[in-house]
Amino acid sequence: MKIACKVFGLILAFGLALASRESPAQSYPSRPIKFVVGYTPGGSNDILGRMVAQKLSERLGQSVFVENKPGADSIIGTDYVAKSAPDGHTLLVSSAAMILNAALYDHVPYDTGKDFIPITMFASDPLVFAVNPSVPAATIRELISLAKTKPGQMFYSSGAPAFHVSAELFKSRAGVNIVHVPYKGSGPAITAAVAGEVPMVVVSIVPVIAQLRAGKLRPLVVTSAKRDSLLPDVPTMSEAGLDVQGGIWVGLFAPAGTPRAVVDKLYSEVSIILKSDSTQKGLATLGYDTSGTGMSPAEFNTFFRTNLGKWTKVIADLNISRKQLAKDPGKAAR
Questions:
Q1: What's the number of domains the chain is made of?
Q2: Strands across the sheet with 154-158, in order?
Q3: Do 155 and 299 fall within a single domain?
Q4: Which residue among 204, 222, 240 closes a domain?
Q5: pLDDT, average across residues 247-261
């Protein structure tokens, strides 16, 4: 009798433990889910975030919406998610900015490597260096020659650290001094270049393709390993004889401490969306690279940490910082 009671007790305890472990996923989501984007509307983070949010809402039967929290190179929005309840209802749509900010700034108000759980990658996008049509340069080499005649007198806009770091790498390789003008997102950075407020913009291809096709901006070079399908006539940096890397990726993150069952459920639903024929076709039509789309949390975590080490070294080697923009960006984020 005693043995039977003990066995029954063990079975009951196991059942309760299993139910407890499964309950977060079973009850999730219990209210609307917020995708936080640390930039203004119009950039790749925003475009992809809204695309996935709409379809995830349909699959979960719960509202999923994007909230833009721009400022301090996305630090404001990133910090907001880092300090949110780890229950899967507040998530971060972010990019290479997460790993670059940790190296660019002396202080950020969160731990990039510890405060987030990578869920999956949405897509990636190479960069394009484009100029206002008034700039007398039809190629990147002509721009370099022009910049060398006007050291410190030419300017470029960018709306994210990934663009800034790639531009600074270009300046180092090309031996030119073109001054950076920061904007709170790709949308404003593109608008400034179109308006002629700055002669050049460094940005990912997708958000600027309409302006390029309309002739409002002239593309000079792309940072991909091979020519981009949206800009087949535009040479790569390698073709121009420059060893300059660059590009963005956009993915989904949860605050550290989010139950694994919730992370797994989110990945399961989002990966179905990302790998569907309609989404793949939509991403390709927009010009995104889908080679990493829908990678597992483990794969995305490895990718994230590998790039954190790689770009931290590049930034240190080039001695790039954002001190000129904010002495302590964390103050703005707190």
A1: 2
A2: 178-182, 154-158, 200-204, 127-131, 218-222
A3: no
A4: 222
A5: 96
The β-bridge relationship of strands 33-37 and 64-68 is: parallel
Residue 25 counted as domain residue: no
Q: How confident is the model at residue 23 (pLDDT cuts 50, 70, 90)?
A: low
Range of the domain at 193: 127-222
Residues contacting residue 27 through CB under 8 Å, at least 6 positions apart: none
**Average per-residue pLDDT for the chain:** 89
Determine, yes or no, domain membership for 11.
Answer: no
**Which CATH number covers residue 181?**
3.40.190.10
Let me know: does 268 contact 60? Beta carbons within 8 Å: no
Q: Does residue 1 have a pLDDT over 80?
A: no
DSSP 4-30: HHHHHHHHHHHHHHHHHHHHHHHH--S
The model's pLDDT over 140-178, given as tens digits with 9 standing for 90+, comes to 999 999 999 999 999 999 988 889 899 999 999 999 999
CB 252 within 8 A of CB 239: no
* DSSP single-letter state for residue 231: -
For residue 298, give both structure tokens.
Answer: 């483990």
